[in-house]
Specification:
Blueprint lengths: L2 E6 L3 E6 L4 E6 L9 E2 L5 E4 L4 E6 L2 E7 L9 E2 L5 E4 L4 E5 L5 E6 L9 E2 L5 E4 L4 E5 L5 E6 L9 E2 L5 E4 L5 E4 L1
Antiparallel strand pairs: 1-2, 2-3, 4-5, 5-6, 6-7, 8-9, 9-10, 10-11, 12-13, 13-14, 14-15, 16-17, 17-18
């Protein structure tokens, strides 16, 4: 594809070519504060302050999924095409390749943390309820760990399966 996709607080996703020329724009009704994800078929999936997840292919809207609050979480796309994204309404959502809700996992605080996926299908994400969550690809609870403060950062998964995340308590947490 040879393009870079950049969201703006001016309520648009901009497509740039490899030398920085604007080659396309897609307007939305809220600022785009997180990164876009690109599906295997080239569909660009991103979220906005209007609480919507957008899927755009070749400059046209493929689908849109609406949550109840703004989204600052970057979407992640699983190997099967499932889109995972957190919302300030406190949920992590799993959407199929057509933007239909597969499941939602409710926390007790906004989810601005972007999800991280493992090869075996485990999804890790943090919440402002001060917890790191691990859920399965079908939305089932695996485990949680309470930190000393809200979690805004996104988890990182290491080469040996370790999961690292920071909390507003100023600590780095690593799980093996």
């Amino acid at each position: 594809m040879g393009q870079l996709f950049v969201g703006t607080t001016g309520a648009r996703l901009i497509a740039l070519d490899l030398v920085g020329n604007v080659v396309g724009q897609f307007p939305v009704t809220g600022g785009v504060r997180s990164s876009a994800a690109i599906a295997a078929d080239g569909t660009v999936v991103f979220a906005a302050d209007d609480g919507a997840v957008y899927a755009v292919r070749a400059g046209r809207l493929s689908w849109k999924f609406q949550t109840r609050r703004p989204i600052w979480s970057s979407p992640a796309i699983g190997a099967d095409g499932t889109v995972y994204v957190g919302s300030d309404d406190g949920a992590l959502y799993a959407l199929d390749g057509n933007g239909k809700l597969k499941w939602g996992y409710q926390t007790e605080g906004p989810v601005s943390s972007s999800p991280a996926l493992t090869a075996n299908g485990t999804i890790f994400f943090g919440s402002q309820d001060s917890k790191l969550y691990a859920v399965s690809s079908d939305g089932q609870f695996i485990w949680e760990h309470t930190t000393g403060g809200p979690i805004h950062s996104s988890p990182a998964i290491g080469a040996f399966g370790e999961v690292a995340i920071t909390s507003r308590d100023g600590r780095l947490y690593v799980f093996h």
